[in-house]
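Progress against Task 2.4 (sequence-to-structure conversion) is shown through the following example record, which the project officer requested during the mid-term review.
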Amino acid sequence: LAKEAGNFDCGNPKELKSKCIPLAEVKQYIANATGHPPEKFQAALQWIISSDKDLGIWLREEDYLEPVMDIDRVTCLESSRPRMWLSCRLRRAFITTVTSLFTAFLVLISLWGVYLLLKHHWRKMKEEEQAMFEMVKKIIVVVQDHYKDWDNKLEAYPYVGIVHVRDSLIPPDSRKKMRRIW
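Structure tokens generated for the chain above:
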């Protein structure tokens, strides 16, 4: 069973449909290899089902999604420990290692990209905040200048309109770009 499962996992030279070997084939192989009668085979199956130990053999049904607990429903046997050639084991270990390294590399690249995007976003926010503070300072200067002009009787009203302040600070072609700062 282990050899057939290993063959199935390592390229399937016999073109098996699954790792699960039909019960009739297993009975015939055991009878030819050992010479024991079929009753002993049935007793061995019952012992496998009732054993609490992991024997490395799974008894399966047709759909073989979960192990069988009734001897009459067993249709095939499967090894839980496939015996693979050294070259197959090395190839599978290499593929697993390369896949894991590639996945880790992709995760690191993704995290680095997220870090760079966040860093760019934080820098833009800081620049925007700084520009907003500069705009507030300019607005205060314009309002103070207007008040001084009113105090010196150069202006008719002590207040200044918001639109007038905007128009004096931001040129018309820059207003759309400076909208968030304003």
